[in-house]
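Dear colleagues,

As part of the handover before I leave the project, I'm documenting each prediction I ran so the next person doesn't have to rerun anything. This entry is a single chain, and its sequence is reproduced below.
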Amino acid sequence: MAEKKQKPLLSIGMIFKNEIRCLERCLKSLQPLREAVPCELVMADTGSEDGSREVAAQYADILFDFPWINDFSAARNAVMDKCCGKWYLTIDADEWLEDIDELVNFLRQSNSQIAIGSRRHYELACLISRNYSFYSAALRDDYMDVFVPRMILMSTGLRYSGAIHETWRLPQGSSGIKLSKTILHHDGYAGIILNDKSGQAKRERNMVLLREELAKQPDNLRTLSECLDASVGDERWNYACQLVELVKEKKPGWNVEGAASLGSAVVAALNHNQIDKAAEWIDLAEDMFPRAFIVRLDLEIHAIQISWNRKNFADVVRRGERFLQAYADYHAGRGDKAKNYMLVMSAPRWKPYAQIYLSCAYSNLGEYDMSWKLLQKLEFYHLDKEEIRFLLANLKDLHSFTNYDVVPFVQKLWDTINQPDYARSEECIKGFMEEGARAFLPSNLTKEQEIAAARPAWTLFLPLGEENKLGLAAKLMAEDDLAEMERLLGLVENWDDIINMAPLGRALLAGAKFPARPMSMAELDNVAGRLAAAFPQMAKDLAEKTAAGDFAASWPSLMWARGLALAAVAACPWQDEEDLALAQAFADVEQVFLPKYYAMELLCAENIGLLPPMHAFGWYCARAFAALRDGDTPEYVRLLRKGLELSPNMKSIVSFLAEHTPQLQEKPEPSAELLALAEQVRGILAAYPADDPAVAAIKAGPVYQQIAYLLEEPQN
């Protein structure tokens, strides 16, 4: 006689379509549960074309096709109709179970209680749905938790209702239990974010069904909330405004759905850049639902962000402290027990987020003691790039304006984010380097000097060593030995980073040789350009210092002198009399560089225009200063003008030299011959109208140029 098959204690039901990405992961995760209690797995395929059905066939006890009719309840009820277990558990393909102990114990105990007629009788069980926003194996700290009804006693006879976001409608007085340790991990929302086309298709499909339901029940808060969540753009904003009004009017269900509805509306307002309206709705939620965790956690974080952007640091402190208390209450099981909404900011990563904002706010209020005490409790593991930047900025302030030993904290932070298994390691390192680089910016270095900071912020990075570019730059800033400076300069691999400009300038002003390793002309020009852009006065001083030294001793030093001179000239505002020395230094470098670099046949008036404009101007500039040294000021002026013709961008330096060259400011007594010549030319010019072409031709001639200062000066 064949052994009678045991009736399943649990029926597991699933509907699926084209879920090849995740279906087998889900089904494998159910195996321990199926082995622990008598189970059956019933699956309905609503039209798969990607191989999902073949995967399902390897696991399902019952597998059938159900033609899709735009009704989730119909599909799920079709699955329930084929089940014969005492309990029914529904699960989706993009979910998976890990810890089944609590669920197994409940099923076994409830089965025993039913058998003996125990009074402790439950008809429904809620499990935690843990929804990952940007899921990956390394980002398991970024999720939203919500209790969802997922298991029902089949003897209730209940079936699903609702074409979308279907649910069981329990009669009043029904009893349920929350299994707080049984988690259904869900990465379907991450799939929407990571795949725009599938996400859009899913939203459009859902919106068709939701609009139909909303037309039937326009005041239904739950349906309107679902419309808001599934819509985009102006439509979403309109739903948000409608939803808030329904909550204000206390429409049916407001006390159950209201807090979550206002939470969704606030997010929509922020996404729509309606910041004032978001703040108003947060205040409304605090008044109407002060105990709800979605208000105390999620909306509190949004309020912290708003207050921070408004530089209301006192409010950031108030709200940050409230959030940390609510976070502690939630994870200790204290406070609001409803939890019938999806919480985002209950996830572990939001506690350090709030701590960082709170600590920064304390520092901005000058309460450094509170800021430092709070950071002692900070957990690094859940930080992202922007939080790293905020944290490091605050640590720099604490280092500069207090006596706290912040250096070990920064070292620990750096070591932590460099661990191979650190979540978001690459982006966190990038944030650390970007914020650290700000310590070497000219504006920040100047500010520290002006306010007499206790310690320059860059000294915070000294212990990071030579393998870290922040540590290497800090060592260069602190070093006084020339030989050691040159060794450190040789370790710099990438001169494209602004971090290195201040240390480089300091080392060069101290007398260190550069370049310390072989570099191309393009690399040297890049370094010089960056240095001049960041520190124009430093570049000017270095160009003058270099030109006064033995810059032609080697090709590398000559190339550097040339690049530095060109960059300094381009960056100089040409306003102060001291800038005359830079022009002379530029001419000196060009006079040496050009005949070494170019064929002599090019270095003549006929061919000089073939050179790059800056070098063409440099050739004329060098000849002009030579003429000036010989006392020939007219030739000096003529040569500068010729150089300007080939390089119009040099107008500022030519105008500056015309106004600040001492020899040009002197007006020697003209000879009788010059005075007579001036009178003769003046008479010729008087014979023609001012706009006659002959006047222009005369003024362009060499004779006029020689006596122009006599003809053009104001007549008494």
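The first helix runs from residue 23 to 29. The two ends are 137 Å apart (CA to CA).

All the best with the project,
I.
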